[in-house]
Structures are given as C-alpha cells and as structure tokens.
Amino acid sequence: MSGGPRFRGVRIRGLRRRFGGVTAVDDVDLDVPAGAVTALIGPNGAGKTTLFHCVTGLDAADAGTVTLAPQPDRPAVLLSGLPPHARARAGVAWTFQRIELFAGLTVAENIRVGAENRSGRPLLSGLLGLPDPRRAAVRAVTGAVLERLGLTALADVSAGSLPTGTMRLVELGRALAAEPTALLLDEPASGLDDHQIVRLAEVLRALAADGLAILLVEHDIRFVTAVADRAYLMVAGRVLLSGTPDEVFASDLAREIYIGES
Amino acid sequence: MFYAGLALNGLAIGCVAALAAVGLLATYRVTGVFNIAFGSNAVFCAYVMWQCVRVWHLPLAVAALLVLGIVAPGVGLVLERFVYRPLRRSGASGLLVATLGVLVLQLGLVFLLWGGRSYVDAPSLLPAGSVRLPGSLTLPYATIVELCVVALIAVLLTFLLRATRVGLMVRAVVDDRDLASALVPADRLAAGGWAFGSFLAGVAGVLWAPIYHLDPYSLTLTVLETMGVAVLARLTSLPIAVVAALAIGIGQTELTAVHPAARWQGLVDAFHTNLFVLVLFAALMVVPRLGIRDSGAAGGGLHRQGARRTSRVDHISRLPLGALSLVLALPLFFDPADLRASLAVPALAVVFVSLVVATGYAGQISLGQAGYAGLGALFMAKLAGAGVPWLLALFLGPLLVVPLGWLTGYPAIHRRGLYLALTTFATAAVVARFVFAQPVFVGALVVSRPRGFTDDHWFYALELACLLLALLLVRSLHTGPMGRALVAMRDSETAAVSAGIDVRRMKVFVFACAAGLAGLGGALTTSAAQAFNPTDFDPVQGLVWFAAVAVWGVDSALGAVVGAAALVAVDVGTVSGVSSLLIGIGAVLLGRFPGGIGAAVRRAGDWAVRPVERPLTRRLSPAGRAVARAAAARARERPVS
C-alpha cells in the first residue's frame, strides 16, 4: 500500500457499514492516490456502491475514517462526519450510477452550477443580487470544462434532452467544474458505446496526469484494464485483492467471480 | 382532576371527530388518496341536506336517503371519473393539488348556491333525549348512535379489507393501479372506493351540521383539523384513530374544569377550544413518517417536467411585463370608489409572489402563507402602536416574520409532498387559532394609515412600490447563481448536494424569505382595509390562495401578479363563490396542463419565436449535429405527459 507522510488523495481506514444483520462494508482500508486511477471492482452486492456513498457522505459509516489530503504541505481534512455538500466543497467530486442531471438547465448551466457552489457564498448577498466576486473565475472554469469534454457545441442545449452518453459527460463536467482534488465515478461507462468508452478513458487518463485522484467503481473489465493503475477486488464487503488490473483479473478469485458469473 | 360528566360531554365531541377521522382514513385506505377535500365534501352534503329539508320540505328520511344514498356517492363517482382517474399517474403532489382544487371548487359551489350564509337550523338525523346513568349523569342518544356508527364503519372496513376478496382487490388497486388493472377491474373498484369515501363524508357532514353551525369555512376547517387524529394513526390504524379522537374530545372538555390564575385563563381557554389543532401540529412534529407513499420530487406535478428556465432576460418576457405594469398603474386614475377595490390587488399579489418563491422556486409546498401574512400585519400594527413610524413599521413588521418562517420552516425541510403540506397548513391553523383569534393579541391594534397615505392614490402607489421591491428580490432568486442553484435543487437534490449546494440551508432560507414576503403582503392588506380582519388570514383562505397560484403557474411571478388581479377583479365583479369555483376548476384540471397558465403562455411564446431562431443544427459541428439529431429523436419518442 502506497502511503507515507506526503500522501495526497483519499485515504480510507477501517471503514464499516452495517445494514441490520448484513455487513455491507467490512473493515476496508483503501488509498486513492492523486495522479492515478484506482478501480474498485467486484460482483453485484459486494458493497462497492455503499463504500462509495460512505466516502461521499450520502451514507454514514458506522466506523472508520475517510480523510482527504489536498496539498502536500497542509494537514489532511477529515471527511467523516461532514455532510455531503461540505465534502464536495472540501474537494471531493462524484457522479452517480443513475444519471442525475439538472434537466431544467442547459449543459453549460449544469457545469456552471458545479463551479459556482464550490465555496459557500452568503445567501443574503445572493438574494440582494450583489455581484459574485468569483464570476469571472466561474466563467473561465465552465468554458475550460466544456472545451475539455468536447461539449462546447452543446453548451446551450437543455440537459434533459441529451442521449445517455452525453449526459454522462455533462455529469462528469459538473464534477470537474468544482476543481476537485478527488473524483469518484460510479460506473461511468455504463450506457456508453465503444467509441465513447475510448474517449472517456482518454479523458480520465489525462485528468489523472493532471494530478487528480480518481476512484472508479466499474464492471467493464476492458475499461478498467485500459484506464486504471490499480484495482481493488471487493467481495462481500471486504477487499480481498489488490494490484494492477491485469494481476487482479488474472487471479483465480476474479476468474471465478467474473467468468462464473457471466 | 377528572370529571365524569365532562368526560361524557367530551365523548360526544370525540365521537364526531372520530367519525371524520375514520371517514378520512377509510377514504385513504380504499382510494390511496389523502382527501383534503373530505371536509368540503361533508359541508356540501350538509348544505344539500339543509336545502332538502328546510327549503323543499322533504321528509327527513327521504332527504337522508337522497343525500346519503344518491348525492354523496354520486359526487364521489363524478370526482373519480373526471378528476382522479386522469391523474392516477401524477404522483402525490399532483393528487394533493387536485384534492385542494376539489375543496376550493366545492366551497365556491356552496358560496354560489347558498351565498355562503351560515345556518343554525341544520336538520338533525339523531334522536333527541338522553339515557340516565347512575350518579345523575346523562348520555345523549345522539352520542350512542354516533359511537355505533363509528364502530360499525371501523369494524366493517377492517373486515372488508382484511378478509374478503373484494378487499384484497381494493388493496391491490390502491397499491398500484396500473399493475392491478391487468388483473382486476381497477376502474370500477376505484370508483366504488370514491363513492364509499364520499358517502362517509356525507355521513360526517350531515351528523356534524346540527352540532356546529352550518358554515362553509368554519365547518371545513373543523373537519380539516381532525386530520391530526389521522396523522396520529399514521393513516393506517383505524382503532388508534378512534381512540385518539375520543381521548382528545374528552381532554378538551376536561380542560374546561381547569381554572388557573386569571391571567392564564385565556390561554387555557384557547387550549381547550383548539386541542385538535394542537394535536395536528404536535402529531406532525412527532410522528416521523406517515404510512404513505410520497412523491420523491419536491413539488413534483406542479412544474412542467424539465421546464426550460432561461437565466437570460429575453424580449418575449419583457412584453407582458410592460403590459402588466401599465394595467397595474391604471387604478391610479380611477375614481376613489373603484380605486378602493383595487387596493387589494398589489397586497394580494405580494402574498402570491411569496407562494411562488416557496413553492415554485424552492419546491416547498406551502399551505401556510396565510399565517405568515397575518403575522406580518399583526407585527406591523403592534410596532405602529408602540410608536414606530408607520412606514418603518410596514417593513419592520414583515422582517420580524422572517425568523418565524425560519423556525417553522426548519422542521418542514425534511418533509415533502403531503406531509410538508399538512405541516405548513397546521402552522397556519395554530397561528390563526392561538394568535389571530385571541383578543389579547389582536385587540386595540393601530392599523389606520398616517397622514400622507390616507389618500388612496398615494397608498396605491406605495403598494405598487412594495410589489416592485418584492419582484426585484424574487428576480435574484430566479436568475443568477441562486436561481440556478434552486432549479438544480428542484431537479435533483442528490446532484445539487454533490455540486456543493447546502440544500437544507438554502431551503430554509428561501422559505423564510417567502414568509417575510407574505408578511409584507399581509401588512399591506391590513393597511388597505385599515382594519385587522382575521378572516383575511383564515387558513382555508390560504388553501384558496395556493390553488390560485398553482393555476397561474407555480414558478411564474408574473403569473402570480396577474392571478391576484384576476382574483380581486372576479370577486368585485361577480357574486361571491365564482372566483373559488374558477380556481377550483383550474386546479382540478392542472394535472392535464402541468405548469398552469404561466407555462401555457410561455409555451405559446416559445412557439411564436421559433421561426425566427436559427435551427440549432446549423451552428453545430458534424459530431454535435449527430448528438442533436439523437436528442431530437429521443424527445419525439418520449410520451407527451
């Protein structure tokens, strides 16, 4: 396990989540380092999405800690206990397994909402219509994200009327617009065609190269192999294996699960 | 201290409440709809009964047969066929607005047919006289009969639903009508359920009318207040509902024997006359969840799905704005008598705009704006009475409502749909009963306008300035970062959170703003009339306002202003009841025209500018064009909802 005092990224220690008698996540340690793509794989019901929700704050862990170290010279931020929006502002961004877009806004506005709310602005100044001091920065970020994802031509199209693949891109754009330290993606490749998957892999590689810590929950073996630096295999709430994607997929356990399953 | 005699009196009150609560629950169990219109349905039947006996002089038995056997179930059948069946897929919020529409419609009908007069000579079906009990106690026959009716309904319904084939089919239809319709005659079962529910409302109304006055507003409100019993029973348990209703009834009369120090007597009196309201409020605060499927989307069914809301000001939306300003300025040139009637317009418009803020922008269904409006008026009058300059008090009073809105909005933010609606309504009812109805608070109020504004022209101009101010504040909630954040919140709360939006804080903030705006509207209303009139802020009035705003488009501030003007104009120009009737019809039809009149106008506007705009595809790269084509195909595939 990589680590050390100068670790950057998301660090999960001893995470546990129980639902009644079922332990969905059982004492999981996991590092999502900056500058790399980490994949979390495993069969249905392994607890991947629960783990994901415990990191974003959409679900509360029963035990364990999640910390985010945004800068090498600054102390880590303890995410555990914070509400989801505070985690988002602290630098964690995520997308959803079931696409969640703002259908009443355009593509550009969707991304802009992500950029605008990364710092809490006093609500009263918003009500009184005072100019937003970050307005220029927000515009710049929105433009850059649109450019990076190739969405510029669709900027003024209503987000509710897009095909699934493009919706996934817009969701990714909204997450990126907050200029996060860590990016968590829950099955980003589902519903995409081959061409779009290749494109997404390129984008994710480029983002990792820029220093982003990316955690991927994914089923698609080819996609994980193409994009991830490290893979963790989760079964019944526990992380049983870790290594490069090739190593993990070559293991007997993974073969049993994936080939036995399909 | 417990008094047996008082307890027996309380039993009578409790019985009547139990009857309403059991009717409400039974309707819910057999139709799946929490029928807010239960009270108005009861009132309508009671008025028909009065008409049959007192005007047409039909024998009591014939009249009862006509009302309970034909009219009441008939109303249920008509409502099911033309209101609820077309709405069966529209979710809890859509149904809520529809039931609200039926309530307003029925009240309008009562006003139109009977002039809204109250009668004290409602015919009684129950035998007079009473049974002598040991200890010189008496128990009226009426109470015994009512107890039997309640028990009979509860037992019969429980047996029917639990042990019979029909009951099983009814439960299937309530659970998932579409799924059930493949296996059972769902439409006929639902119609039967509504006929039965409506029959129960008729029974409640006919039995209640002779006990209370036959009065459209107060009787409807009384029935609405027994919803607390239904909430305590979590909308599921009939026995709990019966026991709770009886207990509250007995508690209410036992409290009359409590005689504290003189200065607290008023408060105790308020308690014992309004125990049901308190229970409704407390139950909503305590009971964590209703046994009810609720719509996930906040305020869903009120907005047009995926409604496009631009943050840019386009020329189309400026046009009606200009026309509207002209029309609103017209009364400045009216003669004094006509101007007097127009004074109500800007005041009501501000209240309506507050509803747009709470429900349209924040997605929080608020049936309680009447309460905040009244509080704004009250605070203003108190401040003016305490020597604060009037013009300052006019704004300071409503500002004091904001923290109260914050306080009451806080518990509301965790709730949605029906539960939220009930909570806000209960707040308004508590405020109405414990503040507006108490001479301690509303006695000796200074509401006369100061020099300079005694002339209606100047006051109207001031009102317009206030309305403009309200619209300007609302604008920043509609456009810019805040507007975008609010749309985001309404479209997907989970995604809004992921973008860093503090959804709870935002909701409470906007709710509190809406409360303040309503307070301003209330202060203006009171100043226009130069008298604090509690009926202006009746909770039932709040329901009518909500329905009116929903009809004009819940996310359209301009629609709200036009709606206020239209409401006042219809009220002044026609007999009472017509406006309620129109609003009711509009609200009932809302399920078929989501977004109301505002959205229809916007659609027409979109359609009008379409030929002028360049086709989207011409501005796109080849890849973009492919995406746009796919998007268009998707849009075509989607069924028109």
UniProtKB/TrEMBL annotation, chain A:
Family annotation (InterPro entries): AAA+_ATPase, ABC_AA/LPS_Transport, ABC_transporter-like_ATP-bd, P-loop_NTPase
Keywords: ATP-binding, Nucleotide-binding, Transport
Domain ABC transporter: 10-261
UniProt-listed Gene3D superfamilies: P-loop containing nucleotide triphosphate hydrolases (3.40.50.300)
Coiled coil: none
Protein name: ABC transporter ATP-binding protein
Origin organism lineage: Bacteria, Bacillati, Actinomycetota, Actinomycetes, Catenulisporales
Domain of life: Bacteria
Gene Ontology MF terms in the entry: ATP binding
Organism encoding this protein: Catenulispora pinistramenti
UniProtKB/TrEMBL annotation, chain B:
Species assigned in the record: Catenulispora pinistramenti
Keyword field contains Membrane: yes
Stated name of the protein: ABC transporter permease
Membrane-topology annotation of the record: Multi-pass membrane protein
Keyword Transport belongs to the record: yes
Membrane spanning residue stretches: 6-26, 33-50, 56-79, 91-114, 139-161, 189-211, 231-250, 271-292, 316-334, 341-363, 383-406, 418-437, 457-474, 508-532, 544-569, 581-601
Alphabetized InterPro entries for the sequence: ABC_transp_permease (IPR001851), BCAA_transport_permease (IPR052157), LivM-like (IPR043428)
Pfam families: BPD_transp_2 (PF02653)
Assigned protein family: Belongs to the binding-protein-dependent transport system permease family. LivHM subfamily.
Subcellular location field: Cell membrane
Positions in coiled-coil regions: none
Main location per the UniProt record: membrane
Keywords from the UniProt entry: Amino-acid transport, Cell membrane, Membrane, Transmembrane, Transmembrane helix, Transport
Domain of life, per lineage: Bacteria
